[in-house]
Amino acid sequence: MADYNINAITRRRVFTGSAGVGPYAFTFEILDQDDLAVYFNETKLTITTDYTVTINANGTGSVTLVVNVGGNVPQTPVGSDQIIVVGARDIERVTDFVTAGDLLASSLNEQLDALTIFDQQLAEEGQRSMRAPVYDPALVADGGTLDMTLPAKADRVDAVLAFDTNGNPIKGPTVSGITTITALAADITTLADIEDGTVATDAISDTAAIASDVTAVGGIASNVTTVAGISSDVTTVANNVSDVNAFAQVYRIGATDPTTSLDQGDLFYNTTDEELKVYNGTVWETGVQGASGLLALTGGTMTGNIAFSGSQTVDGRDLSADGSKLDTIESNATADQTGAEIKALYEAEANAFTDAQFTKLAGIEASATADQTASEIRALVESASDSNVFTDADHTKLNGIATGATAYSNNDVDTHLNTSTASASEVLSWTGSDYDWVSTGIELYAENFTGGPTNLPSATGSNSVAVGYEAGADSLYATSFGSFAKATNQSALALGASNASGISSLSISTSNTSSAYGAASTSGISIGTLSKASAVYGMAIGPFKAFADKTYGIALGAETNADEFESVAIGRNATSSIIGKFAFNNNSDVNKPRQGGYYILSADTADATATVITSNHSSAANNNQIILDNNSAYSFSGTIIARESAAAGSDYASWEIKGALLRDANAASTVLGNGIVNKLYATSGASSWAVSLIADTTYGGLKIQVTGAASTSIRWAGNVSTTEVTYA
User: Fold this and answer.
1) Which helix (H) or strand (E) holds 241?
2) pLDDT 10s digits, 652-662
3) What residues are paired with 13 via a beta bridge?
4) In the sheet where 12-16 sits, what is the strand order?
5) pLDDT-derived band of residue 230, with 50, 70 and 90 as boundaries?
6) 373-430: per-residue pLDDT in tens?
7) Per the count of CB atoms within 10 A, which of 259, 325, 405, 643 is most buried?
8) Which residues, including other chains, have CB under 8 Å from residue 31's CB and lie 6 or more apart?
9) Helical H runs in 294-441?
């Protein structure tokens, strides 16, 4: 907030370059460093890149130039250079007073100061404009004759400005006309000399002597003009006259073929035959014939036969091959015989299969034979479900029972299983010849398990549990439930087809057990098809391809990516590549990236040095600011709050910011289309605290810069929302 007067003064200062880079002091008041425009000679300079601004407590200040070889200020200014500092505050109003809201004197002062500055800027520009003196007649609108409106564009194009008898601007002579008259100045002088007898009139006498020739030329003036208009073509023909003559000897036209001056390749159009002919060195041959000698595309008639040398086709058919096929078709053959006609013809043949024979076959049982063997009959009997026949299987089963065998009792089973040797937490395992108790995890699988030994669950880690087809628990306290579940690190838990390879990690139904997916880091969580949490404490949850690649990263949704420390991506195709950034999306088309963003930014200052607020409270970098992707545009808005240490006092201030950014092919192309900073409130002790928005062309984003006060500890915080679109 400005807490000073806006004095009556011209808002423009012109300096010579004798002070070098400055500082160049201006005595008119400004509210912000962007209220100025600075020119070096005729070049408008860019703040920060070409100059810096210092604002005094009373609103006046100074400008210091920045020399940049090859830039807008290529060398230290000298006395012959000019430095112009002019007021250039954007004429806009960005603060509205809300009905029933606070109407603070500080806010009113700031708005009124801005209006006064706008008036002074317009007055300064008016002083540099062409205008009528104050003592001129009254304006037409006031009943007078003065009207300083310029002629319309169509009238004043290529014309000089003139004034009518009332002193009002009108269209004057054309610039081209004046130029023409200027070029004829010498001729005009000569004519004037002739007129007054200063120069002898020999030229006029000479012209009179050839008056008839001049008259003749005047009679064909249009022809002369035409020739003059094609003078370049006439020159071209003259330069190529030998080629023109040569062509006349090669190409001729007449009613009869020439017989003299003949050369091989000559062309002749015979108007009698209506043919273009070519001389072959001996006789004239037809080169191009008129349409009457050609077969019409429609309705043409050809006499005689056409002979083919091979397998040429007509309308896609090989007439030679098709003709051979036609020759083999029996005379009077038809293609529309009925089934009954064909059947009657067939049954008339000797040894034909008749309806009576078909009836006989239908009465014979399917697969019936007349030569079944005993083994075939036995197999048929054994296959019957109600035969109660003693089968080979029954015989094999009896052979497997030892003579005198008896049923085991529970005690017999306990003895056989060596229960007396078992210890706590041990499980029963087959040794190859008997069962024994071993100290491993628990391996469970369904009673109807149909896999082989390699498909059994494997719990090789101490106190581990593996349940399901090819489930694996390979480390201390590891647990895997479900087919193909893999828990390969301490206290890891895998549910369903997934891989939990990090300590104390959780992986659920990632549908792929390779190391490319699942929970691969300490305390990582991965849930969903082809999802992966690859960094410590990362969490990737989504129906498909959620990735948390950095520590504390969180990815929620299909095809989400949390690519930076403490970043959060929520919604389909959301991507967060900035530390601490929240990215939001619901866009199903990965090829048309657009999303929303949210940033929490902070910094501490102890003096009046400009400092960048970042998402990790560190120096500005390419991963802790509002950084754009290549070929992107962002719209942003947010608020900034700052207060000093309670031990020092109770000063505080707040700002509203908003604007738009564009970045093309690289970071250097980043531009701030419009950056608005509106100070919402500040205590008197915080009146000099400031916030500025700058396009960061080093990292390709928005640099939010805060400036505190000397010897004052201030804590700054900001939140910024973005709407983001990328279109390569």
Assistant:
1) helix 241-250
2) 999 999 999 99
3) 85
4) 12-16, 82-87, 36-40, 43-44
5) confident
6) 777 777 776 676 655 666 777 777 777 777 766 666 666 666 666 666 666 656 666 6
7) 643
8) 2, 59, 89, 110, 113, 114, 117
9) 319-327, 339-347, 355-362, 374-383, 392-399, 410-416
Q: In degrees to the nearest 10, what's the CA dihedral of 323, 328, 332, 337?
A: -110
pLDDT band at 325 (very low <50, low <70, confident <90, very high): confident
Measured distance CA(353)–CA(631) in Å, rounded: 82
Whether 688 has a pLDDT exceeding 90, the answer reads yes
Exposed, middle or buried by CB within 10 Å (0-12, 13-18, 19+), for 391? middle
Cα angle at 476 between 474 and 481, to 5 degrees? 55
User: What is the rounded average pLDDT for all residues in the chain?
Assistant: 83
Query: Can you tell me which residue has the tokens 């389909």?
Result: 572
Q: What is the DSSP string of 80-123?
A: T-EEEEEE---------PPTTS---HHHHHHHHHHHHHHHHHHH
CA–CA distance from 651 to each of 83, 203, 604, 614 (Å)?
38, 95, 15, 23
Burial 110-139 (b: 16+ CB within 10 A, else e): beebbeebbebbeebeeeeeeeeeeeeeee
CA distance 476 to 473: 8
- 157-207 pLDDT tens trace: 888 888 898 888 998 888 888 888 887 777 777 776 665 655 555 555 556
pTM above 0.70, yes or no: no
Q: Is pLDDT of 515 > 90?
A: no
Tens digits of residue pLDDT in 501-514: 999 999 999 988 88
Distances in Å between the alpha carbon of 581 and those of 226, 570, 593? 76, 11, 17
For residues 205, 211, 215, 216, the Cα torsion angle rounded to the nearest 10 degrees is: -130
Q: Measured between alpha carbons, how far is 421 from 415 in angstroms, rounded to an integer?
A: 10
Q: What are phi and psi of 531, to 5 degrees?
A: -90, 160
> Based on C-alpha coordinates, what's the Rg of the chain?
51
Q: Residue 34 has what pLDDT? A: 92
Is pLDDT larger for residue 112 or for residue 548?
548
Helix pair 211-219, 202-209: axis angle to 10 deg: 70
Q: Which residues contact 497 (CB under 8 A, 6 or more apart)?
A: 482, 483, 484, 485, 509, 510, 511, 512, 513
Q: What pLDDT is stored for residue 184 in this prediction?
A: 76
Is the CB of residue 538 less than 8 Å from the CB of residue 551? Answer: yes
Distance between the two ends of the chain, CA-based, in angstroms?
Answer: 42
